[in-house]
Write a structure and sequence with these properties.
The structure holds two protein chains of two kinds. Helices cover 67% and strands 7% of the residues of chain A. Chain A is an alpha/beta fold. Chain A has a four-stranded mixed β-sheet, with helices on both faces. In chain A, α2 crosses α10. The longest helix of chain A is centred in the middle third of the chain and has 35 residues. The two termini of chain A are 23 Å apart. By secondary structure, chain B is α/β, with parallel strands linked by helices. Chain B has ten helices and 14 strands. In chain B, β12 and β13 form a beta hairpin. The radius of gyration of chain B is 22 Å and the shape is globular. In chain B, 44% of the residues are buried. The C terminus of chain B is likely disordered. The chains are: A alpha/beta, B alpha/beta. Chains A and B meet through α1 and α9 of A and α2 of B.
Chain lengths: 421, 318
């Protein structure tokens, strides 16, 4: 109908004309990039650490350990330690302790001959929760001890060297009967990335719908509109218009991402093993799942936000009223990590069927693991049915609410609004 | 007789706990300016919202152009709500085009007419500016254009003159008269009787949701006319208060400052009052036998508690 189209058009054009739309279009990717890179930066230990190895060994083990740690590389491929070997002796421990306290030294490792026999060593440091440091020390000690034990048993050092060649575990996701070249890290990044975009976009555009409703209500244009078209048409036009804006926003992001990646050289070569976040490979199916669940989530939540806008008379009331709706969306966002870890757990399956959670839960499961298409279909079916129901309920509240001023209605009043024809 | 433009038949609207409009019936013939008058809270806005199909009546029927009221007629009806507002961040022309589209106009036709109206009301240079850059008076003009842009046959204005400055008030009045001249029908509500008396052909006075009187302005005045005396003092009032309180002379006196409107007691002679006033030392600038003013009728009907409708300071009496 032409009038609905006019409402869609107004919502779209007025929003795209606003500065904030273009700010989002430009700053959005930076924002999402920061969210994704931040955990990675936080995992990184922050520079090369000075440590000492207190050598109480008699067979050159100390030198070997020192050499191994000094060249050790962390997850990000950077050198972790700067190592100095200190022969054991009286007062050494005390003076090193003093240095650690004075922040001249991160920590020190005590190795004795018992390392090879019993596999024991001690690390004393100002920070023993540094994941990278502990991991690196343990790993390198194990390697050195392993080599030494084999040599003691008479194995040729050359053979030992060969035996130590690392194994690289290549992971492939099986989806739709074919294996895709996708590392676990990529799957994780994709799930994480989609969850964040879905959550923020549904929230932002839902609240956009809410403030648009509230604006028409407070400036009373709604009276003129409602005397010309049915409230449901008005609400529908708003949802479609704001929805179109969001799709347009995604298109801008997608095109600019493609452009940037192509400039960087074909999407970034072979992924480095061990990197936690990688630019994931997004295929057509994934993009479709993403768009389908975004639209589903957007319509479901926007209908609710529209009802909240309609029952509020001021910005402040609207802010309060939207909280329960936002919390509903947050549930599935926080369950994300559990779902990535085990995409087929009872929790994950349940959440991906509940319509208020599925817009985030299902794409996360999709990215993290192999999903039967029947489950996606069932979840989408439930979502669409819920959208119809929720939109119907919301439009009945909306219809009465937009013409009401004064105090916010109570729950029993809302029920009466929905019931009355 | 030609078919009425608007017919309300025992229309009732209840809100939680009270009846806002109680079995109200009225008939608006074509080509007239019809005033829906009443004190604040009388049910004027509720009645208008039912006419505009914003509220659904709990009882009774509304007929517009001889058919059940509804949004189907929106292309032929212009509506100015009581509380004014536009989209503050939109450009003036875009707002007008959007609202015209809501009334079923196509954008191209609407654009030409909108520019014409903007020029006519002196806003030609503002078409591409944002609404919130306009002064309050300019915004009122834009809103008025939005109600008449689609050339409606029926124009419905709730509290048409409230908040208008004298210039805009005059423009509105001229436009309303011009529309009537072209055979359009105008219904507006107001609680300012001076406005209604100058403009309306027909009036309907309501209070507490009920109709008190309706008909042509002349009929309403005639049926309500006792012998009315209008008195204007010129400074000294003499013993006016005692004379007006004499029930053998005047059954009712509505005094405000230098002005008084009296209803003569049966058998009383206006000359007696004049003589009494002059001999008590009052100086008069006017002493007139007249029909009652609409204001007087209104106050008599509605009761003294509504005698001073809230006259907002910005309200103009042009």
């Amino acid at each position: 109908m032409l009038k609905v189209w006019a409402v869609v058009r107004r919502e779209f054009i007025e929003r795209v004309r606003q500065k904030w739309f273009w700010v989002m279009a430009l700053v959005g990717p930076l924002f999402f990039g920061a969210i994704i890179l931040l955990p990675q930066l936080m995992l990184r230990g922050g520079g090369v650490k000075n440590i000492a190895v207190v050598d109480g060994t008699t067979n050159g083990l100390g030198q070997r350990v020192t050499a191994a740690l000094d060249t050790a590389a962390g997850l990000d491929g950077h050198r972790v330690f700067h190592v100095a070997r200190v022969p054991a002796g009286p007062q050494v421990i005390d003076s090193l302790r003093a240095q650690v306290e004075a922040k001249g030294l991160e920590g020190f490792l005590i190795v004795t001959d018992s390392l090879v026999d019993y596999g024991r060593a001690e690390y004393l440091a100002s920070n023993v929760s540094s994941f990278t440091a502990i991991e690196t020390i343990e790993h390198n000690l194990a390697q050195v001890v392993f080599t030494l034990r084999l040599e003691r048993a008479g194995v040729d050092p050359a053979v030992v060297g060969k035996a130590r060649l690392p194994v690289a575990l290549g992971t492939q996701k099986i989806a739709g009967g074919k294996a895709t070249q996708e590392s676990a890290a990529q799957g994780f990044s994709l799930a994480y990335f989609m969850a964040i975009i879905l959550y923020t976009s549904i929230l932002i555009y839902g609240i956009n719908v809410m403030s648009s409703v509230l604006e028409e209500k407070t400036n009373r244009v709604v009276e003129v509109l409602v005397s010309s078209l049915r409230p449901f048409q008005l609400m529908l036009g708003k949802l479609l218009g704001v929805g179109a804006v969001s799709i347009f926003q995604f298109l801008i992001w997608a095109v600019s991402a493609r452009f940037l990646l192509s400039r960087r050289g074909g999407g970034g070569g072979a992924p480095q093993a061990g990197q936690v976040f990688q630019i994931p490979h997004v295929n057509v199916e994934t993009a479709l799942v993403f768009v389908a669940y975004f639209l589903g989530g957007f319509f479901l939540y926007s209908a609710m936000f529209a009802a909240v806008g309609a029952i509020s008379s001021t910005e402040q009331e609207a802010r309060q009223g939207q909280q329960p709706v936002s919390v509903l969306l947050m549930v599935s966002f926080f369950a994300m990590f559990a779902m990535i870890n085990d995409p087929n757990s009872t929790l994950a399956v349940t959440l991906s069927m509940i319509p208020f959670c599925s817009p985030i839960a299902m794409p996360v499961r999709w990215a993290a693991g192999n999903l039967p298409i029947s489950e996606v279909a069932a979840s989408l079916g439930i979502l669409v049915a819920s959208i119809v129901l929720v939109t119907w309920l919301a439009s009945r509240i909306y219809r009465v609410g937009i013409l009401m001023t004064g105090k916010r209605p109570s729950i029993p009043e809302l029920v009466r609004w929905v019931r009355t024809a | 007789m030609t078919q009425p433009i608007l017919v309300l038949d025992r229309v009732t609207k209840r809100f939680a706990g009270h009846v806002a409009v109680d079995a109200l019936s009225l008939v608006v013939p074509p080509g007239v300016i019809y005033g829906l008058l009443g004190p604040n809270g009388a049910g004027k806005s509720t009645t208008i919202r039912m006419i505009m199909n914003i509220y659904v009546p709990d009882g009774g029927t509304v007929q517009v152009f001889g058919e059940p009221g509804g949004r189907d007629h929106s292309a032929r009806v212009g509506y100015l709500p009581e509380e004014r507002g536009l989209y503050p961040k939109m450009r003036v022309l875009d707002v007008l085009l959007f609202l015209a589209e809501m009334k079923g106009m196509d954008r191209r036709g609407a654009r030409a007419k909108a520019l014409q109206w903007l020029d006519r009301l002196g806003l030609g240079d503002w078409a591409q500016r944002k609404v919130n850059e306009l002064s309050k008076g300019m915004q009122q003009k834009v809103q008025f254009i939005s109600t008449v842009l689609h050339d409606p046959d029926l124009l419905v204005m709730d509290e048409a003159f409230s908040g208008l400055d004298p210039v805009n008030s005059q423009i509105l009045k001229d436009t309303v008269l011009e529309l009537r001249g072209r055979g359009k029908t105008i219904l507006f509500s107001t609680h300012i009787m001076e406005q209604a008396e100058k403009l309306c052909d027909h009036v309907c006075i309501i209070a507490r949701g009920k109709k008190l009187v309706d008909g042509t302005l002349a009929d309403v005045k005639r049926t309500r006319s006792g012998h009315h005396v209008l008195v204007n003092f010129d400074g000294a009032r003499g013993d006016a208060d005692r004379i007006f309180a004499d029930r053998r002379l005047a059954t009712k006196a509505d005094v405000s400052g230098q002005f008084a409107e009296l209803e003569l007691a049966p058998g009383a002679d206006a000359q007696q009052i004049l003589q009494a006033l002059v001999s008590s030392g009052a100086r008069l600038s006017r002493f007139e036998l007249a029909e009652p003013s609409l204001n007087k009728i209104f106050i008599d009907l509605v009761g003294p508690e509504a005698a001073h409708p809230d006259m907002r300071p910005e309200v103009a009496h042009a």
